[in-house]
Write a structure and sequence with these properties.
Layout (H helix, E strand, L loop, with lengths): L3 E4 L2 E3 L5 E7 L8 E7 L6 E7 L4 E3 L7 E6 L4 E6 L8 E11 L2 E6 L3 E5 L2
Parallel strand pairs: 2-11
Antiparallel strand pairs: 1-3, 3-8, 4-5, 4-9, 5-6, 7-8, 9-10, 9-11
């Protein structure tokens, strides 16, 4: 069972920045994909950004050019740098990793961190 501990959420004004961090209980190298999802009340969780084991990144259209996903293999930290935040970016952000083991691909989730964008 992979444990993910997130931090970095909070209240920020429109146009501001936040950096989310996620520390997994296992080596980042053991995951085929890592990413961040956002969920708002009454809505399904949607992927914001992801990075696969080869290093290729993918961003949802609504964050392209503003958010940057990264991973530090040495420090074993996953990050999401969020710039130029808008009110529509508000929600609970979840760290996600996908691990292939026992002939199946499994998802693991962090506890979520709240991001509020308001003046």
């Amino acid at each position: 069972q992979v444990q993910l501990v997130e931090s970095g959420g909070g209240l920020v004004q429109p146009g501001g920045s936040l950096n989310l961090s996620c520390v997994p209980s296992e080596s980042i190298g053991s995951f085929v994909q890592t990413g961040w999802y956002r969920q708002t009340p009454g809505q399904e969780r949607v992927q914001v950004a992801s990075i696969v084991s080869g290093g290729r990144t993918h961003y949802a259209d609504f964050v392209k050019g503003r958010f940057t996903i990264s991973r530090d293999n040495a420090k074993e930290i996953l990050s999401l740098q969020m710039n130029s935040l808008k009110s529509e970016d508000m929600g609970v952000y979840y760290c996600n990793v996908k691990k292939f083991a026992d002939w199946k691909l499994s998802d693991y989730w962090g506890q979520g961190t709240q991001v509020t964008v308001s003046s």
